[in-house]
Amino acid sequence: MLFASPGIDTAAPKATRIDLFSAATPQMRAFHVTWLAFFVCFFAWFAAAPLMPLIKAEFGLSKDQIANINIAAVAVTILVRLVVGPLCDRFGPRRTYTWLLLLGAIPVFGLAFAQTYEAFLVFRLAIGAIGASFVITQYHTSVMFAPNVVGTANATVGGWGNAGGGAAQSLMPLVVAALVGLGVEHAFGWRAAMFVPGVAMVAMAFVYARYTQDTPQGDIVDLRAAGIELDGGKATGMAILRRAAANYRTWMLAATYGACFGVEIFIHNIAASYYVDRFGLSLTSAGLAAGIFGGLALFARALGGIASDRIALKKGLDGRALLLFALMLGEGVGLVLFGHAGSVMLAILAMTMFGLFTHMACGATYALVPFVDRKALGGVAGLIGAGGNIGAVAAGFLNKASASPQQCLIILGYIVAGTAVCALAVRFSASHKSDERALLDAALDARRTGDRAVNGAIPA
């Protein structure tokens, strides 16, 4: 049975530490399986991006058609991210993720059979639904980890998963090159390569269903059936989404996420082609250069979450918001420098700089998400996640309207720097901060008690 019940343990607490090399607990199994699932989804989402020079040549695509494809790749994600947050509240992340993986694999396979620009555009649009996997990823770790480490957990799984985009930039051209080396035509090679992420998604769906559960206590559907009230109470679906939408902090963070994660996926879509067109690099070299940006996600997003958790120990929720403001400013400056770079080396250095700030800002944003409204976590995560894709779509239209990609990047940098003020606008009431501080102190006490038990100071 695909969704066998893991059982109910009402006494199971949220994890107060991240035991990175363990998968013995439901919390750590969710941690590892969810980042791996997100990695596969992100790889599949952007698997076609580094192959666009080949696809452009085969279909004879114009600049506007390529821009349309890039916009399509992120547009539908906006709607799906709005839906999957409430679905997690209703059915749990385990079931939601499994079905997203299975259904999302269909258009990935479909790209391999596209024979026209129109067919390719439709499949690229449908693939965008895979991007909603991020919301499920953040939801799952948010309900599994306590306030003292939830920022680090969210940022780490998000960052390691995002690295799938960088892996796609570097590996997909190598897969095609290997196939061509075996005597396969380029036109068939990129199509055959699309089966790699498609098969990985199907396999990951069964892993997710088999090895995870929704919360430390058990699956949400089982808990609700047993009459056990969850954090969100009895509210489900649209009620949770409406509650999240009524909170102004949701929209401020949606704006900041549009300016960091939106830029991130925009760069994933254009980076390889940018290095080919502007600096004359080969497809493989351009893929490796673009892959540096995605590779930063392996540690930079986690660094943003870790920094947010550390600052919160002394400065509370206001400290988390101030950190996000500083990171957004750094990202904006780096983008402007990237647009002005006149050589490959300077471009890579500038990309690395703004990429570091971008990934850290993404981690710092979702380090704040669990504290916006605990009773509407799915709705908050979904709306803020959708904001990221709105930013990517807006960047795509800006690129389409700009005289050159360089001009687009410079303008984008100034917009990002201006959006940083939204982070400063995120404020919490004294009672809200007091309640969250109490939860944080309780988590720290639980962790200290566990440490003493392990060290033999008190009975385990």
UniProtKB/TrEMBL annotation:
Domain Major facilitator superfamily (MFS) profile: 30-435
Localization annotation: Membrane
TM segment ranges: 35-55, 67-84, 96-114, 121-139, 188-209, 251-275, 281-300, 321-338, 344-369, 376-397, 409-430
KW GTP-binding (keyword) present: no
One Pfam entry name: MFS_1
Record membrane topology: Multi-pass membrane protein
UniProtKB keywords: Membrane, Nitrate assimilation, Transmembrane, Transmembrane helix
InterPro entries linked to this entry: MFS, MFS_dom, MFS_trans_sf, NO3_transporter
UniProt-listed CDD domains: MFS_NRT2_like (cd17341)
PANTHER family (alphabetical): HIGH-AFFINITY NITRATE TRANSPORTER 2.3
UniProt-recorded name of the protein: NNP family nitrate/nitrite transporter-like MFS transporter
